Amino acid sequence: MYKPNKKMGKLIIENRSEIFRPSARTERTPASVTRDILKVIDTPGMISFAGGLPDDTLFPIQDLKNIFETSVSKKGPKLFQYADTQGHSDLRAWITERYYPGSSAEEILLTSGSQQALDLLSRYFIEEGSPILLERPSYLGAIQVFSSYAPLFIGINYTEEGPDIEELKYALTTSSERPKFFYCIPDFQNPSSYSYSLEIRNSLSKLLLENGVPILEDTAYRELYFQEQLPISLCEIGPEHTISIGTFSKTLAPGLRVGWIKAPKKILKDLIVQKQSMDLHSATLNQELVYGFVSSSKYEEHLSLIRKSYRRKSEHTFDCFRKNFGDSLPLQISKGGLFYWLEFPQEIDTDLLFQKCLEKGLATVPGSSFFVGKPERNHLRWNFSNASEEETKIGVERLFEVYREMS
Amino acid sequence: MYKPNKKMGKLIIENRSEIFRPSARTERTPASVTRDILKVIDTPGMISFAGGLPDDTLFPIQDLKNIFETSVSKKGPKLFQYADTQGHSDLRAWITERYYPGSSAEEILLTSGSQQALDLLSRYFIEEGSPILLERPSYLGAIQVFSSYAPLFIGINYTEEGPDIEELKYALTTSSERPKFFYCIPDFQNPSSYSYSLEIRNSLSKLLLENGVPILEDTAYRELYFQEQLPISLCEIGPEHTISIGTFSKTLAPGLRVGWIKAPKKILKDLIVQKQSMDLHSATLNQELVYGFVSSSKYEEHLSLIRKSYRRKSEHTFDCFRKNFGDSLPLQISKGGLFYWLEFPQEIDTDLLFQKCLEKGLATVPGSSFFVGKPERNHLRWNFSNASEEETKIGVERLFEVYREMS
Q1: Does A279 share its domain with A223?
Q2: Is B69 an interface residue toward A (CB < 8 Å)?
Q3: Where is the chain membrane-spanning (chains A, B) (predicted)?
Q4: Which of A233, A238, A205 is nearest to A219 (CA)?
């Protein structure tokens, strides 16, 4: 075995910090706050409303077990062999049929969750300095991955009806370069829980098409409606200029890491090449488990079950807030998704509130993490799908206590 | 529903090609030849020696089934919930114990196969124009993903003992900028099947350390020895300046997509942030299945089984070549790995040979795909682990037939 001599040992120490010279990309990728919070939620006594975690007691474990057995018996070793980059063809066909009627399985690429879809599309589109449009606030995982590609962020305020169209028009006229895309979550957005009205969907799609700007529509929460289905998707309105991203993380199980991109065939070919270079293909077994479940009659039942359960949890959460905060938080009962977007008075700095809450054994996410540009600092994102009713009761009480101390 | 008016319909047609404007990165990522070949191997009558496919009849399916059942019963829903980015802690500990004695599980990051490890390290290191060192020939999946980051490739000839050290010295002295890393496969390389001698391992590690250049060591084939274990790994020789990449794709099953990076703790933190932004984390279930199997007593048995089986297949392949080609191909019997690197006389263009073989129902990979810079055009890569003995017999005969026609 090679033993470094004294001189070399010294070399190691002197040069170590310099041997590995990261790219500028590394320096500019921010750590994800929620991922960091996920690490502290195992602290004893900590109650967490931080992650966008589905309720894992509702996962159809027994069904997945049965599907695994049947699939392994039926498909054998092929389930564990290298496979096609584009992904499970039956699952792709199922996705088109359910979400993109009239389009073909050839327009779908399966990904390792929708986070990989975002990374892949960033790779595809973004040059350093490319202007990209996105909502204010927006999903922090998207902001994180976009940041690593160093775009020029243009934030458009997300109101209760959808993005501010006048602001969008202004941005489109004043941008020195045509934006590469508009990234948006039109359905029960993370974090705001707002959705686009039908009117906004139509005018936004038209406006972006006229300006030659593609839409990246993230549909992660679209199935999680508590009252009525949302209006038609942007992808159905304008399939020619919309790329749609979806995931089974919220409707089935995030640990399986199965998501997808739906894009016009012509560009999908290039996306597949990128995916090849990123990880060859996503795990075959996971796609098979998802397909086995969603293509069975049990999927609709399961969706009804989680909608009912999350609705009940959102109502309970709402009641707890009302009981503790009275009218001091302007909250509306949730219509879907996984989050309450708590708006505090301007004088409350939620970065500080968040820190103080952590000390009291309460994890949430400070609103500032969801903004590009100058952040608003008076929101907290509160997940209601994961905690039990009792935890929610205690959690809201803890929050109120900290809030009272600060105001 | 929104219906585009005539004017808009026209707009769609005129602008469609321009609406999606890919990055330069997209333009420069080459499609992977093997992935494309994988698509044609289902043609009736086609025999393939193209992919680096392990023999799937040897996959321990029944064991994986049992592990799945036990794990689901024991860990329940947590197996399907969001999980830590760094990956399964027991599996990380197992990897360190087996491959990196003396280091800690904190130095391991689990990835979706080793291809993702290569992408992640490219992200971490490469700026446009960064010089990087790699072997000539080298793994085409690595060349593909590196290419998308637009480095300046510096190829170092891989001889039967390892890289040409004098050439490496020359490259280090003449490079205008210090190379970001040296990427290498010291064990039964893909495609050449060469390995580094102990002497080369020691001098190469020392030379690169003295020049402040980190090593990315790809250990994909290290376990697949047919006679004796290979000398100490570069990572054991110089852990301070070596990042090691590994995978369970060749030793267990590639469809599970489980690989890893072993790197000094200090830089691993940054790698984890990149991984967060890429896909949050790799699938929990797959890591659990791998852990269940490799930590059991069955893993060693399984490794013995595949070593024996691949050795037998490599010997059979060798015999077929001898029988058909006699001395016209300078072949040595394989010592490990998955490939024969066939060297034809200079006047045979293997790009053309490859095409003619495809027409005869025989898939291989032309050698030119494995070179950065000016490719050598007289090699074919021949995988021996996947085909049956009968297929191998017919395959070699077909190859010889085409070869005879060309010479």
Answers
A1: yes
A2: yes
A3: none
A4: A233
Cis-peptide into B330, omega within 30 deg: no
Closest by Cα among A259, A257, A181 to A219:
A259
- ipTM value, please give it: 0.93
Higher-confidence residue of A29 and B52: namely: B52
- Cα B230 versus chain centre, distance: 18
Task: Please indicate whether, in this complex, the C-beta atoms of A209 and B11 are within 8 angstroms of each other.
Answer: yes
Is the Cβ pair A274, B145 closer than 8 Å?
no
CB B370 within 8 A of CB B138: yes
Q: At what angle do helices A265-279 and B113-125 cross, to 10 degrees?
A: 90
B140 three-state secondary structure: helix
Question: Cβ-count burial of B140 within 10 angstroms (0-12 exposed, 13-18 middle, 19+ buried)?
Answer: buried
A314-372 pLDDT, tens per residue? Answer: 999 999 999 999 999 999 999 999 999 999 999 999 999 999 999 999 999 999 999 99
Window 195-234 of B, Cβ < 8 Å to A: 201-202, 205-206, 209-210, 212-214, 232
CB-based contact A204:A196 (threshold 8 Å)? yes
Question: Minimal CA–CA distance to B201: which of A2, A16, A180?
Answer: A2
CA A237 from chain center: how many Å?
Answer: 22
Q: Residues for chain B: how many in total? A: 407
Collapse the DSSP code of B155 into the 3-class scheme (helix H, G, I; strand E, B; otherwise coil) and give the result. Answer: strand
**Per-residue pLDDT tens for A59-73?**
999 999 999 999 999
What digits encode the pLDDT tens for the residues B14-26?
A: 444 488 999 999 8
Cβ–Cβ < 8 Å for A241, A210: no
Question: Which 5-44 residues of chain A touch chain B by CB within 8 A?
Answer: 8, 11-12, 15-26, 29-32, 35, 38-39
The average confidence (pLDDT) of chain A is 93
Cis peptide before A264 (omega within 30 of 0): no
What's the pLDDT at B18?
Answer: 84
Average pLDDT for B92-102? 97
Report the C-alpha gap between A189 and A340 in whole angstroms: 10
* A141 and A288, same domain (yes or no): yes
Which of A 349-388 lie inside 8 A of B, CB atoms?
Answer: none
Burial class (CB in 10 A: 0-12, 13-18, 19+), B390: exposed
Q: Domain boundary at B297, B332, B366, which?
A: B297
pLDDT band at residue A35 under the 50/70/90 scheme: low
B2 class by beta-carbon count within 10 Å (0-12 exposed, 13-18 middle, 19+ buried): middle
* Alpha-helical regions (H) of B326-387: 350-359
Q: How far off is chain B from A400, nearest CA to CA, in Å?
A: 28
> What domain count does chain A have?
2
The CATH code of the domain that includes B245 is 3.40.640.10
3-state SS class at B177: coil
Q: Print the domain residue range for A353.
A: 29-52+300-406
Q: Does one domain contain both A40 and A71?
A: no
Say if residue B303's pLDDT is above 80. Answer: yes
Output the pLDDT for position B35: 65
- Which of A149, A107, A155 has its CA nearest to residue A129? A149
Please, what's the largest Cα pairwise distance for chain B?
Answer: 73
